[in-house]
Structures are given as C-alpha cells and as structure tokens.
Amino acid sequence: DKLDTLFSAEKFDCVIHFAGFKAVGESVEKPLEYYDNNFVGTVKLLEVMRKHKCWNMVFSSSCTVYGLPDKVPITEDTPLKAISPYGRTKLFQEDMFRDLAKGCKDWRILLLRYFNPVGA
Q1: What was the pLDDT predicted at 49?
Q2: Model pTM score
C-alpha cells in the first residue's frame, strides 16, 4: 500500500486531508464511487495514521452537512442533515472522527466546513 510505504519512509505529525470527490450532482449519479473514495478512502488513511502513530488531522468538510437548513445564518448548533451522497460522506466522516476522539484521546482532528468555496 502506497500510504503505508509513505508513512514508513517519513515521520508525519499531522495530515491535512483535503482529498475527495466533491460534486453534489455527480454524487447522486455515482453514489458508490463517492462512498468508496471519500469514506472508505478516509478509513484506510486513518488505519495507516494509527499504525504510524500520527494522531493529528485537519479535515476539509463542507457546509453540505447541514442539508437545507430551516433558518439562516447557519450556526454550530444548526442540525446536521446532509441530503446528498456527497454531503453524507462528509457527515459520516465527521461522525467517525468524533467517535475516534471519544474512543482514543490521542486523536486530535480539526473539522473545517466551507461555504461556497468556488463562487456562485
């Protein structure tokens, strides 16, 4: 596995995880590809990080985790309810990170949520 080879060759203190498929419409047409690339790929990354004791991550999430909010502006208290496969992959990853942090205090993961990162 290329990730394991990379982590064996170098010592990493943190991973900045900005990788993933990101088109909402395409995710509806190709949900399996999105779940495999975005969610399963992140599970594999976390397994390698754990093996090599790299416990820190900055994760690029998305405002799509909020779905269609009942009111704006969106706050940290706004319910999370993704409505597309893309949004759900981001939300599932966030949930997984929260579970990791509860289960093992070594993990330190920062979640960044972007709003309209490429312009309208």
Answers
A1: 98
A2: 0.91
